[in-house]
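Bifunctional chorismate mutase/prephenate dehydratase: structure, please.
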Amino acid sequence: MSDADQLKALRVRIDSLDEKILELISERARCAQDVARVKMQTLAEGEKPVFYRPEREAWVLKHIMERNQGPLDNEEMARLFREIMSSCLALEQPLKVAYLGPEGTFTQAAALKHFGHAVISTPMAAIDEVFREVAAGAVNFGVVPVENSTEGAVNHTLDSFLEHDMVICGEVELRIHHHLLVGETTKTDRITRIYSHAQSLAQCRKWLDAHYPNVERVAVSSNADAAKRVKSEWNSAAIAGDMAASLYGLTKLYEKIEDRPDNSTRFLIIGSQEVPPTGDDKTSIIVSMRNKPGALHELLVPFHTNGIDLTRIETRPSRSGKWTYVFFIDFVGHHKDPLIKDVLEKINQEAVALKVLGSYPKAVL
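Here you go.
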């Protein structure tokens, strides 16, 4: 068989497979509609339907990754199914998601990575506004940054948990690539200032010291805002990601300029619904301890005794008094697990206050 005949046969085979894929996706979408009808029929009077189940979605994506045999890698396959699930869920009820804006931020990228592109996403000007939108019921969920692998905790998010009663429903980790972006009118040999968010400037500090040591670095509210400013200036550049570059039509003068190749940011999904155990969960709590010697040791002993893996601990000033502090702690397990229940009971005996922010599936993507 000639090469031309082989190509023709392969294309016919691909066309046939595409038709089968189309048929199966349509069948899945119809099943999603049937699920929505069943849920509506079984509701008690005045009860609101819950269409989005984080634990169910996490299980499906993990199951897909376990069953995947290539040649597409596990994450790529899971992302494809994430979008199919997002579109099917939108047939039941489109999710409304608030995120730290404006458009083009890494937080928006995290929201779309977690929920898929079929959601209705709304940018907010500040982290506290994301919390307020969720608390008011104007959106189903919010997405906020909580920590970066290079620069540490995002304190605005931690402080917002002290002021609002929110449930953490999920997490998403995003690999952060920073690019130096310029506009059509930028004179690249005469750049006098570089805009970006303060954390992004910090994450690219060594690169900037080496390549633009004498250029002014201007911290702005977000990377997307930085990209927007560069659009209309001939002597400036911006540090931002792919979404901002695409949204504002900028060109990458240099790619991947972050100092650490493993630079990542973790985001939290906040909402109002508690998430059942999946068997692969994390829990976040806030603890306020009495200001006395050994307080932190007393707090950590129950975790050590029960062999619970702590993944993060942060300290923030308490709002209740000068020189008193609260601890934000993340650990492996669900608050309904017997071992975790025992730990929380022991902590509660010593703590001034203990608040479980939520138990949720570990990030899949």
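Notes: The domain at 275-361 is CATH 3.30.70.260 (Alpha-Beta Plaits).
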